[in-house]
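Quick one, tokens below:
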């Protein structure tokens, strides 16, 4: 079951290739792939598989921290679409859209449903990163 609460996640210092610094665009593209996670996470886990992700940017990301916050989730007949806002410490910079296929029998379970995922990636500080209003 999908939950209506908004989900937000931070990513810091991701690399597409080990020991190489990813460009701001590559980091944004990698974080956009998490749109399925923030838009389709429910009480039973993530019951959808990404079919397609679209990333649109109004500007280049700045700094090591990128955030993603769910804006919408719609589903019908085993198909879901979700949208999320991509942001950095300066504010909003793009939109991500995911199309997904339901896989309820093979959903990824929620490890700690009482906690909100607040950070991922190498070099993440202890505790939640402060979030600008996206």
């Amino acid at each position: 079951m999908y939950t209506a609460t908004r989900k937000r996640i931070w990513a810091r210092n991701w690399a597409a290739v080990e020991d190489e610094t990813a460009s701001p665009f590559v980091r944004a593209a990698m974080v956009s792939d998490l749109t399925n996670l923030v838009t389709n996470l429910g009480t039973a886990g993530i019951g959808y598989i990404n079919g397609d992700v679209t990333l649109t940017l109004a500007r280049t990301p700045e700094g090591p921290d990128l955030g993603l916050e769910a804006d919408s989730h719609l589903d019908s007949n085993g198909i879901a679409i979700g949208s999320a806002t991509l942001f950095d410490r300066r504010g909003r910079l793009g939109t991500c859209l995911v199309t997904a296929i339901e896989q309820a029998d093979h959903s990824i379970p929620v490890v700690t449903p009482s906690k909100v995922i607040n950070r991922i990636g190498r070099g993440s500080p202890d505790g939640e990163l402060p979030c600008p209003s996206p």
